[in-house]
């Protein structure tokens, strides 16, 4: 059994668990702690440290931790941030978290991590061509995978559609905040996925995030040329992908640096 560790920082919660990389499953029940407000790097770092400490028996000292954030990551820093404190922007997050945790850290975009997990274990496994994985949550995260290779930091949730930032109209959080029915929300999703389909002509859409468990409520309402399926790993994908990234950082540090 190969155990790695992943943490997924979201706009509403920070979640972590050890992951069995041979099976692509949690090796223990995940721990979730509400995202602190304000969600500064330092405040999130304290929550992350608490989660790592909670699983101390399952995660050997000095072993790497994969951490995802809801924003792009370039060379360990975040060029812009939509769903956490703006103090993340330009902050040397990977160096800070390495020092705070006392162990190697792999910082990764959350949707990219979900994409990695779906490619290795889930709905996009062995699928040729261009696969776009979307995560519907506080915002809309996206991962682009071409023939199994990740193209990082796509941020297609911030496309401007009909004068709006796409995620401000079609994220799962918007459905909840505006009290939209599934058919009403599906109309917004239809506009979003149709636009992405027109721009990129993908071979497959994979829809993730916690709301993917309710796929039968909205998925059949979408009409696209491109096949569209729910994520196999649902909202576990971020943590599992973070664990994959942590393991890759140990085995192939140069390759991961290029991806980031």
Please explain how this structure is put together:
This protein is of the alpha/beta class and 260 residues long. Helices cover 35% and strands 23% of the residues. It is built from nine helices and 13 strands. Strands 1, 2, 3, 4, 5 and 6 form a six-stranded mixed β-sheet that branches. Strands 9-8-7-12-13 form a five-stranded mixed β-sheet, covered by helices on one side. The chain has a two-stranded antiparallel sheet with strand order 10-11. α1 packs parallel to α2, α3 crosses α8 (237-251) and α8 packs across α9 (253-259). The radius of gyration is 17 Å and the shape is globular.
Shape: globular
Percentage of residues assigned to helices: 25-40%
- The overall strand count is 13
For the terminal residues, how far apart are their CA atoms?
A: 27 Å
**Low-pLDDT stretches:** 256-260
β-strand percent reads 15-25%
pLDDT average, as an integer? 93
Number of helices: 9
Gyration radius, to the nearest Å? 17 Å
SSE arrangement, N to C: EEEEHEHEHEEEEEHHHEHEHH
Major beta-sheet overview: 6 strands, mixed
Q: Find the structural class using helix and strand composition.
A: alpha/beta
